[in-house]
Each structure stands twice: as C-alpha cells, then as structure tokens.
C-alpha cells in the first residue's frame, strides 16, 4: 500500500524530496524526519537545525503562501528553516504566478496574518511580497509537471 495515499500527501512527499535534493546539491547535510506526523520538524539540517517544508499552490489572488490556522503556525515560526515548494496550478494560465514552480525560503520573523475564506476556512497567510520571502531556485521538468498534476484545479 502506498504510504502517501492522498493528493496532499503525494504532493508533500514530492516537495520534501525536492527540498532534500536542493540541500544535497548545496552539500548541506539534511535528514528527513522518519515520522511524517512530527509536530516539531520535517527535517534536521546541519548543526541540528530544524526545517519545516510546505508544498502548495499559493493563494494566488492574495499572492500568499498559506498555513492551516492550528499548530502548524507554531511549527513554522519555530523552525530554523521554513521552506515552501511552490507548485503550479493544474491549468496553465496567463498569470505567471499560476504557472511558476520554485523553492522559497521564509526567513525568521516573517509577516503573516489571519484570513477566513468565504467558505469559513481559517488560515494563516504569508505574503510572498516581503523581504523575508526569498526565491531560492526555479523548478522545471518532471518535478514541475508532477506537482502541476496534483495542484489546485483553478
């Protein structure tokens, strides 16, 4: 049986693989947590630093990454390294943000705010338009297309 059965789990697993590969390319030691439900970190990096990885299509109308408004905020705020893998949307679109796939680092003390959708979903938004959000690398090829297939269908 596949360990990652939902679309979100498959997307998250591929994102973690992309993050791990990125740090390996830079010769930075990284180890994934053996517990996929670890409440503290997804990764351990050099000098025992914690890393949290998120893989998602951004909230494009707000130009933001999102976090569930629950224990995930503290996990992200407390991580030494917060890394987002931006997935493209399922449908190719004229807006470049919809089609982009990249790795971002969110630096400590990033700005965020609470938001409730029309469907009453509560979330934390992290604007991509702030100095604490830095694009590290574009992602293309097989990884981009795999994430596109799993991405939001809008």
Task: Note down, in words, how this protein is organized.
- With 154 residues, this protein is of the alpha+beta class.
- It has a single domain (7-150), classed as Trna Endonuclease, Chain: A, domain 1 (3-Layer(aba) Sandwich), CATH 3.40.1350.10.
- The protein is 26% helix and 30% strand.
- The protein has helices at 7-25, 71-78, 96-99, 142-150; strands spanning 30-32, 43-45, 49-56, 64-68, 81-86, 102-106, 113-116, 122-127, 133-138.
- The strands form two sheets. It has a six-stranded mixed sheet with strand order 1-2-3-5-6-9, sandwiched between helices. A three-stranded antiparallel sheet has the order 4-8-7, covered by helices on one side.
- Strand 7 and strand 8 form a beta hairpin.
- Helix 1 (7-25) packs antiparallel against helix 4.
- The longest helix is centred in the N-terminal third of the chain and has 19 residues, at 7-25.
- The radius of gyration is 15 Å and the shape is globular.
- The model has no long low-confidence stretch (mean pLDDT 88).
In short:
By secondary structure, this protein is of the alpha+beta class.
């Amino acid at each position: 049986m596949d360990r990652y059965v939902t679309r979100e789990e498959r997307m998250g697993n591929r994102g973690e693989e992309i993050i791990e590969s990125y740090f390996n390319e830079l010769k930075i030691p990284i180890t994934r947590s053996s517990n996929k439900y670890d409440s503290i970190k997804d990764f351990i990096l050099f000098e025992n630093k914690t890393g949290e990885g998120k893989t998602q299509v951004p909230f494009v109308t707000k130009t933001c990454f999102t976090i569930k408004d629950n224990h995930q905020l503290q996990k992200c705020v407390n991580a030494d390294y917060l890394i987002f893998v931006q997935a493209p949307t399922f449908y190719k679109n004229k807006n470049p943000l919809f089609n982009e796939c990249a790795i971002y680092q969110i630096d400590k003390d990033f700005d965020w705010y609470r938001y409730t959708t029309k469907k009453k979903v509560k979330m934390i938004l992290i604007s991509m338009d702030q100095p604490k959000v830095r694009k590290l690398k574009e992602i293309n090829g097989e990884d981009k297309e795999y994430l596109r297939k799993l991405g939001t269908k809008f």
